Amino acid sequence: MRVYEAGEEFLLVELSPDMRLKSSLVAIAVAKALTAADVPGMIEAYPTNASLLIRFDPEILGHDEVTRLVQEHVEAEQARSSFRLQTRVIEVPVWFDDPETHEVAMRFRSGHQDPSGDDLDFAARVNGLDGRKEFIERYYGAPWFVSVVGFVAGLPELFQITDRRNQLQVPKYLRPRTDTPPLSLGHGGAFGAIYSVRGGGGYQLIGMCAAPIFDPQQQYEDFADSPVLFRAGDIVRYRPVDEDEFGDLRRSVSAGAFRYRTSPFEFDLNRFTDDTSGYAREINEVIAHD
């Protein structure tokens, strides 16, 4: 564990030099434990891929005291022989290979590694797959773990719950786009992301999500408790939809009738380690088709 001062009110705690699932789980567990402890002067603990950002009141807590508190929790979590996280599975409907993200991708080919093709063809090729159809099937064929929410408001970064040899990896654009539609599904490196708002971006575009993930006015029922849908530790199950169903879902959102399908789930790190593929299939079946 390494601790860096980040101004008077913040500490950055690095749990490991590389991104590992256990490090993400430890970060989430420590953040929850610090929040539950309700320590005077502790304002917020925010988990990321392999680190924590701690905000505190320096007039109540000193850097050394915060470091000691964090280290106690980190050591306790890292020493556990089994690791379970109480979380939820969220089903996210996606129109893969949709015309809107395709149009945007083609508009910015000058900043891409392969100006002659599109993002899906490129993603399939660099992963050694037999075309865009196989890439898409692999994408929704295993669930995804939300390791951090941020960068812009409500944007989740996710990595796939699969064994290392099947991890989908795609380079980001050589030069970022200046426009990305909200709810675009993108992929860069080993991470996926859902763009919560319109803006720039460098992830390869592969589809469009049907329903909002960020609702600052909290007008939809899914956002009654928070304007942000996702939390670190959530598990996402992508469900492919066609153009007709996508249109129906968008109309349902506009009418205020759409609700995300979710289910409570206990994620077991030991089961993931022992049988990654089997465990991923089990997670994908938590929310059964009607």
Would you kindly provide a written description of the structure presented here, covering whatever features stand out?
- There is one protein chain.
- The protein is of the alpha+beta class and 290 residues long.
- It has two domains: 79 residues, Gyrase A, domain 2; 201 residues, Cyclophilin (Beta Barrel).
- Helix content is 30%, strand content 28%.
- It is built from eight helices and 14 strands.
- It has a seven-stranded mixed β-barrel with strand order 5-12-9-10-7-6-13, surrounded by four helices.
- Helix 1 crosses helix 2 and helix 4 crosses helix 5.
- The longest helix has 17 residues.
- The protein is globular, with a radius of gyration of 20 Å.
- The model has no long low-confidence stretch (mean pLDDT 92).
Write the layout of secondary structure elements.
Elements: E1 2-5, E2 10-14, H1 21-37, E3 42-47, E4 51-56, H2 63-78, E5 84-96, H3 99-107, H4 119-126, H5 132-141, E6 144-149, E7 156-160, E8 177-180, E9 184-188, E10 191-194, E11 199-201, E12 204-209, E13 235-240, H6 243-254, E14 261-268, H7 269-274, H8 276-284
Helix pairs in contact: 1-2, 4-5
The overall strand count is 14
Flag low-confidence runs. none
- CATH fold-type name of the largest domain: Cyclophilin
Distance between the termini: 46 Å
Mean pLDDT: 92
How many H/I helices? Answer: 8
Structural class: alpha+beta
- What is the alpha-carbon Rg in Å? 20 Å
The shape is: globular
Query: What spatial order of strands do you see in the largest sheet?
Result: 5-12-9-10-7-6-13
Q: What's the CATH H-level homologous superfamily of the largest domain?
A: Cyclophilin-like
Percent range for β-strand residues: 25-35%
List the secondary-structure elements in sequence, H or E.
Answer: EEHEEHEHHHEEEEEEEEHEHH
Largest sheet: 7 strands, mixed, barrel
Helix content: 25-40%
Q: Which architecture of the largest domain per CATH?
A: Beta Barrel
- Number of domains as seen in the coordinates: 2
CATH class of the largest domain: Mainly Beta
